[in-house]
């Protein structure tokens, strides 16, 4: 395979695709990401193959450097072919590539987690090692608009609230994770690879109904698309509103956090003076944030609602338990949040 | 059929069901609705038959009065049997009943609207006539948790934003519309009717894939339930958060509206002093509200986003067109909203 060396070698449609992807990634990360060191996670499928080539072209244009990480999950017989494909592709692109083989089934059994979860843990452990090794600024993932649609449906099924319902983030600063293809159609990626005569590996496990994600992709999403062929566009718009609202609530929560009072023993008081002038919509989100700040373990939406209802009804003395030994106690001064020393 | 005369005659489970429905309706309407005059819309199916009986029992307890309205759509051969059933049921319950026959197909053809839309228009026209005739405080509708789930999926498909994505309202003060069954399971309603030996009419058109709503109900919802048997509970929780957020944004928008300046000729100025200290999440919702206030015709989310982006980029002089001759012009003082006199 003879791959393009620069964006100028692409036809105008695909040059535009690359530039749109760069623009989206820049907007979301707030920086010119392609001018930096990028670790691209590549399975060898359409999405990540296209991502690797597009990132390489953008980095050449903008002065960045691209590294590749590939993990063999050893869940399919043909997975070693994927590894060979990715190594060949990287050699062709002159991109340093690290591959690692993990026994995902074994890990899943030993740690009593599902196969999907085991794969996820091992994959991100490996990616994080690679990020340290190459000192990269971003872990770049190939999730596209189809993945975003599935994720929104998955979150709807599982009962996510707003704005989490809007789906996975294009940029996660904590994990330095960037998804520049998140509003790009998979068909555009396939079309791009075909136009430059670049092959890819097919993952047959994508068709198995063993995985929730596949059942959503293969059975539910087509029905939604049948009702509205622009379903993907609707979901991209929803995500954009979710990002805007997430930013809004982050700002409001940040203002409120400044008014918390730290008590002895790592306890926090959310004083009545703060809570009484806050709307329940803000209070519920603030409670969630404070409980997260205390340490690991998230509070369920229903538990937060119980706390909110009790506070609204001024149930002084009521104590609410949250995961990992965290509690919230309604007092005359406000709500005291703490974590038990046993945890 | 010999129907119960009071809640005391029900078993404890169904007495509890009736009281929970009353509590939910009171919470949402902010008043003891069952002590007032209620118009119940009854098709004769499970949901509305149960609603009519439950409303009657609640009204007897709380001092209200119940009236019934039934419209024959003439879309199915057996629809006159539904009318006979509803009339018999009302006579049994000692509830005044008004029935009307409409040629929905004819209206759809003449007005060039779809059959569903035609049915909806004629039905609500009829209900509004009945509300005037009986001077009722609420139009009570039988939408239940299953309907809410379908509505959320329908809105997701059609690209609704937040909080509209949370689904139809349990209470619409403008239309005096109340849906006290909105978080009740259809199975509970069926179980209730069976326990009091009350029959109902089956609507065979519920199984036809001709209607979007039926395709969602019969094909998409079962797949979502397969993934999470508590899908309904998740949707009820989402709706509750949507109501909370809707109330939040209504409060914020009301504060902002006080800062608009009325200009000559029915124009409104949203001054920079207001807009610059408002977050984009609030600004977009405020723009939408102002455009609605100018007169009929809603703005698309994408048009609102274009206006927001142009304002953020300070594109002074830019003019944006909205439906029904409405415009927004970015000026140095802020954004001027107006409606052309031709409309």
From TrEMBL, chains A, B:
Domain of life, source organism: Bacteria
Binding annotation for ATP: 43-48
Any Gene Ontology CC annotation: cytoplasm
Record's keyword terms, sorted: ATP-binding, Cytoplasm, Ligase, Nucleotide-binding, tRNA processing
InterPro entries given in the database record: Rossmann-like_a/b/a_fold, TilS/TtcA_N, tRNA_Ile_lys_synt, tRNA_Ile_lys_synt_N
Compartments reported by the entry: Cytoplasm
Family from the record: Belongs to the tRNA(Ile)-lysidine synthase family.
Protein name: tRNA(Ile)-lysidine synthase
Protein source organism: Maridesulfovibrio ferrireducens
Taxonomy of the source species: Bacteria, Pseudomonadati, Thermodesulfobacteriota, Desulfovibrionia, Desulfovibrionales
């Amino acid at each position: 395979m003879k791959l393009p060396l620069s964006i100028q070698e692409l036809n105008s449609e695909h040059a535009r695709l690359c530039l749109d992807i760069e623009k989206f990634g820049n907007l979301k990360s707030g920086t010119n990401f392609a001018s930096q060191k990028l670790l691209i996670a590549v399975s060898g499928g359409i999405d990540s193959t296209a991502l690797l080539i597009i990132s390489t072209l953008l980095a050449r244009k903008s002065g960045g450097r691209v590294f590749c990480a590939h993990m063999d999950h050893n869940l399919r017989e043909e997975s070693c072919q994927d590894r060979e494909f990715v190594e060949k592709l990287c050699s062709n692109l002159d991109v340093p590539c690290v591959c690692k083989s993990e026994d995902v089934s074994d890990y899943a059994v030993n740690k009593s987690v599902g196969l999907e979860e085991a794969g996820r843990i091992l994959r991100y452990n490996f990616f994080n090692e690679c990020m340290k090794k190459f000192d990269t600024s971003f872990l770049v993932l190939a999730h596209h608009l189809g993945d975003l649609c599935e994720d929104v449906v998955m979150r709807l099924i599982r009962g996510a609230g707003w704005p989490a319902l809007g789906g996975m983030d294009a940029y996660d600063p904590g994990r330095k994770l960037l998804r520049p293809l998140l509003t790009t159609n998979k068909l555009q990626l396939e079309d791009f690879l075909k136009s430059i005569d670049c092959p890819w590996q097919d993952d047959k496990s994508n068709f198995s109904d063993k995985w929730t994600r596949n059942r959503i992709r293969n059975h539910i999403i087509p029905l939604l698309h049948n009702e509205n062929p622009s379903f993907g566009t609707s979901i991209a718009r929803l995500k954009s509103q979710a990002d805007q609202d997430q930013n809004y609530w982050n700002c409001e929560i940040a203002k409120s956090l400044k008014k918390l009072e730290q008590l002895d023993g790592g306890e926090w008081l959310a004083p009545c003076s703060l809570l009484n002038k806050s709307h329940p919509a803000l209070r519920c989100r603030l409670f969630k944030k404070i409980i997260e700040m205390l340490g690991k373990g998230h509070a369920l939406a229903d538990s937060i609602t119980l706390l909110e209802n009790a506070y609204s009804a001024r149930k002084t003395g009521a104590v609410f338990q949250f995961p990992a030994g965290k509690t919230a106690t309604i007092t005359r001064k406000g709500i005291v949040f703490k974590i038990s020393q046993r945890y």
